[in-house]
Amino acid sequence: MQNRLIVIAVFVALLFLDSTAFAMDGERDELSYKEMGLASLYNGEMDSALHYLERANSIYEDDAQILGGLALVHVYSGDFDRALDYAQEGRSAGGSADAYVAGVLAHEELGNVRRRDRWIDRGLDNFPNDNLLLYHAGRIKIPFDNKIGEELLLRSINSASAFGEAHLLLGERMYRKGENVKAVMPLLYYLMLHHDDDQSSDVVRYIEHVFNNWASSSQSISNYSTASSGVRVDFVPEAWDGDDSDREGLNRWFVEQTVSFMESVKSAEITSGESLWLFYSDFFSEVFRLDFANVLALHVSYSRYPDESVGRLANQDKSRKYDMFSNWLLME
């Protein structure tokens, strides 16, 4: 009898362990589906994101992050009404930044301007440091209020510096305003992140245009440039005076001006009201401290002068330095 009781006890214990393991497997499945779904979403793999997030949602229906992810998937797929359904559910489940971003984008696409703006305001109240909410708020506001838009984009950049679109939009807006220093800093950073994008060659042209206009402008008569409000650098570019068909010469000129500009930015005078711009001066200071300025300039110039830049980087010393620079970027 005692032996039978021992066997039954062991059997019950094994059943308990098996059911516990099953529950843990279910939790792992939920977490893995959620993690894989969100990772797919952020990598732009919408089909995979939809598959994994729907599986995760079927296991646990009130997860705000899962619902927010599904809302974004449907925004990017063009199903804005469905996106709003998930965004509302995500907000009701406790809220996620993705749910608010999806709500903003869906209402924008549907032409609901007031609702879009309410979603921005509520989103930033709940997630004041989310880079995508800050970026879209800056993107929407900057045509109407340049200063507020500029601040929102800079906050987005300080929150997540690897998001290139924020640097590009900020640089383009400053370029149109004629803010030389404030235009070149984010455009260079964008090119560092996306030196081989389709539009990168045009971005290099913007910077060349700034350098040439800056060199010939009345503001460049003094050694001290006040070509951007609140940010001063000790830099005067030299205008390109050669033949535009001389690509090797243009490449060398662009790299020289870029290195000189970055060197001046590391000691820029930035007023307290413009302190968010310290992100760039701190970054370029570190680039110079590590002796990466020349290879960074060549990396950026690749966008418009690929053959010339690769040829110069083929130098053994520069090649080694470029590898060190690339590894440093991966760790940043």
What would a concise description of this structure say?
The protein has 332 residues and is mostly helical. 73% of the residues lie in helices and 3% in strands.
Task: Please give a structural write-up.
The chain is an all-alpha fold and 332 residues long. It folds into 2 domains: 128 residues, Serine Threonine Protein Phosphatase 5, Tetratricopeptide repeat (Alpha Horseshoe); 168 residues, no CATH class. 73% of the residues lie in helices and 3% in strands. The protein has 16 helices and 3 strands. It has a 3-stranded antiparallel beta sheet, covered by helices on one side. Strand 1 and strand 2 form a beta hairpin. The longest helix has 41 residues. The relative contact order is 0.05. The N terminus is likely disordered.
